[in-house]
Prior knowledge:
The chain has helices spanning 3-14, 98-108, 124-127, 146-153, 210-227, 264-277, and strands spanning 48-54, 57-62, 72-77, 81-85, 114-118, 139-141, 161-165, 170-175, 184-188, 193-197, 204-207, 231-234, 261-262, 284-285, 290-293. By secondary structure, it is of the alpha/beta class.
Amino acid sequence: MSRLLFITIPFFLTGLHFPFQKGMEADLRHQDWIHGSPDCKTNRDPLIQVVCYNATTWILRQNKCIHYEAPFIFLLVGKDRSLLVDTGATADEKKSPLRQVVDSILLANGINKKLVVVHTHSHGDHVAADGQFKKRDNTEVVGSSWDEIRKQFGFSESNLMSSMELGNRLITVLSVPGHDLTSLAFYDSETNLFFTGDTFYPGRLYVREWTTFKKSIKRMLHFAKEKNVTQFIGNHIEMTNKNGVDYPVGSTFQPHEHVLPMTMAQLKELDRALDRLGDSPKREVHDHFIIYPK
């Protein structure tokens, strides 16, 4: 049996469509993720793991033995449009068959709507597979440069918030630069999940523009308080489940990972730490993240 068949058959055995009802979402605090192998030559994880959060929301993770970043990717379906947030770290469709997986999910659920591809930011581990979708029918790939993002969402110095209507599913888009000029966060009104990219996640929070990053964290915190957000979903896991301990950069085996969702308390902790550090960027280790100026 080919590797490709090996990894796609389980998607259908476990089922890509379920009669979910409100409140029947998967518990991401106890979700097991593929996390690599001590010897990647023997790794048998799927190339892309698919987790169905609810009937219209899927969370995907790349195989760490294919790319150590193992970014998460998100597929959200509305009445009129579907939204794919990020395309991951690998362009090669044989190593990361993202389009095939996305098409399989949509086909299995009888979904044939326009697909819009957006990005949490422009770094290569989030945009690599854009090419798999650029020639896909009924698909729009939003560019990842700041000029393209500003045009798409109407951002300006006085307006750093926009929205996308998928059809009975409103996505609020916040500009949150600091990690990257193009960094965005996406709030989903249906699930109350706040997708925060590389700005806030259980790992090394690389800060390239210190003052800008601090402002972005305050913007996210203020918005999240208004919406009563309880789960912040980033694009990586780099912390272990031991407080303050991260995996080394480049790790392809992470058997004891931190949970994916971050909490309001942890975002408040980050905001307070940044305030305390003031105008002096400093690497600082916390239980659930590391402030890491670049």
